[in-house]
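Figure 3 (text version): structure tokens given as input.
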């Protein structure tokens, strides 16, 4: 079940009978404000202590991303780890024995118990790779971290980049979200070098 379906199923529970007065005062679903997901940030590597603003950057990036994609609320975890740990995850889950910058693990499609938040999944970010890439691309660490958080969140929301069309759409959406955070497009620099 998608995060949106999860929210809809949870919100739609209860009596199907509505009085005319209740319907008149309810706003249509399309006009209801989006609810930001609950974000748990777990720091597993002491390397992240060098970046005191990382949690704030991550929270702002996820809130910006959630405001532009069809999800309502939910809960996700961001795990801040190191290259060794992410390499093991990458090897075990993707059969790629190498460190990477970010991995996303969407939650299973099961419905949550009534009153429980819809679980979106987990995002795992490796410090050394993130820092190395930011330095190599001559961009602030915070900008690259925001991009990785947005990218990971979009995967949790069901976006992918396996095909060229999907990749183009995902890059455009990432760029629009990052613009809300005053982060330049990460794809312009890459394409111009």
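Below: residues designed for each position.
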């Amino acid at each position: 079940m998608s995060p949106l379906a999860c929210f809809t199923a949870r919100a739609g529970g209860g009596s199907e009978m509505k009085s005319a007065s209740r319907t008149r005062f309810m706003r249509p679903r399309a006009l209801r404000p989006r609810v930001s997901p609950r974000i748990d940030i777990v720091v597993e590597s002491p390397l992240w202590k060098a970046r005191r603003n990382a949690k704030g950057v991550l929270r702002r990036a996820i809130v910006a991303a959630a405001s532009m994609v069809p999800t309502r609320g939910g809960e996700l975890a961001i795990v801040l780890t190191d290259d060794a740990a992410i390499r093991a995850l990458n090897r075990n889950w993707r059969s790629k024995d190498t460190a990477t910058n970010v991995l996303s693990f969407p939650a299973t499609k099961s419905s949550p118990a009534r009153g429980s938040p819809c679980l979106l999944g987990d995002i795992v970010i490796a410090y050394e790779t993130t820092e190395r890439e930011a330095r190599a691309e001559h961009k602030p660490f915070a900008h690259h971290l925001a991009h990785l958080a947005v990218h990971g969140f979009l995967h949790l929301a069901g976006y992918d980049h396996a095909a060229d069309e999907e990749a183009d759409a995902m890059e455009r959406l990432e760029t629009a979200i990052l613009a809300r955070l005053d982060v330049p497009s990460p794809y312009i620099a890459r394409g111009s070098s």
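The CA atoms of residues 74 and 118 lie 4 Å apart.
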